[in-house]
Amino acid sequence: MSLATAATQAHRQVRGFLVAGESDMMVDLTLAVLHFVLIFALVGILGAEAALVHEGMDGMQANRVAVLDRGYGAAAGLLLVVGFMRHVLRRERRGLLPQNPVFWAKIAAFALIAALSILPTVKFIAWQRRARKEPGFRPVPADVLSVRRLILAQAAVLAAIPLLAGVMARGYGL
Predict the structure, then answer these.
(1) What's the mean per-residue pLDDT of the chain?
(2) How far apart are CA 163 and CA 154, in angstroms?
(3) Tens digit of pLDDT for each residue in 142-154?
(4) Distance (Å, rounded) from C-alpha 147 to C-alpha 31?
């Protein structure tokens, strides 16, 4: 089965599940709202991570940030799925193909954020494990600084995505 066929079938299943026969406009609205909620979740979780990751953080904060980071990954994954579903719905309705370079810049920015999040996630998992085993554990300040820098880099790239989305929505790049 091709990717396009699978996407069309998934779209029909989501449409049937979410609104049981309502119009594509209602599905589009539902997916748009969910898309924005997930974006706000990413921003909030990333902000919470930035607040928790600081010099002198303790094992309890290391545990909290590891739990938050799992939510960050889940929200990012769901955002990707919902964004894909929105794209499939638009393409079905309007015959649009992903020919817009601004669309690909937005996807590249999202991929860059994912890449920037790998090292922090690995560190958070390690910190959480050590905090469980070693009372009084505190992450090494150099590790905390490098993770904090990567969190701030993710935030900077994340801030560019709404700009790209606004540019794309106005037809630039076509």
Answers:
(1) 86
(2) 15
(3) 999 999 999 999 9
(4) 32
Contact at 8 Å (CB) between 107 and 13?
A: no
Separation between Cα atoms, residue 129 and residue 146, nearest integer Å: 19
pLDDT in tens, 117-133: 999 999 999 999 999 99
Reading the block at residue 131, the tokens are 């905090």
CA distance 174 to 113: 25
Closest CA to 124 of 38, 74, 54, 53: 53
Residue 11 class from Cβ within 10 Å (0-12 exposed, 13-18 middle, 19+ buried)?
Answer: buried
Burial class (CB in 10 A: 0-12, 13-18, 19+), 169: exposed
Question: Residue 102 has which token pair?
Answer: 């601004």
Tell me if 120 sits within 8 A of 48, measured CB to CB. Answer: no
pLDDT on residue 159: 94
Contacts with 116 (C-beta within 8 Å, 6 or more apart), sequence order: 150, 153, 154, 157
CB 106 within 8 Å of CB 28: no
What's the rounded Cα separation, in Å, for the pair 74 and 53? 20
Token pair of 96 as six digits: 């649009």
Question: Is residue 55 classed as helix, strand or coil in its secondary structure?
Answer: coil
Query: What amino acid occupies position 105?
Result: A
Domain extents in the chain = 3-169
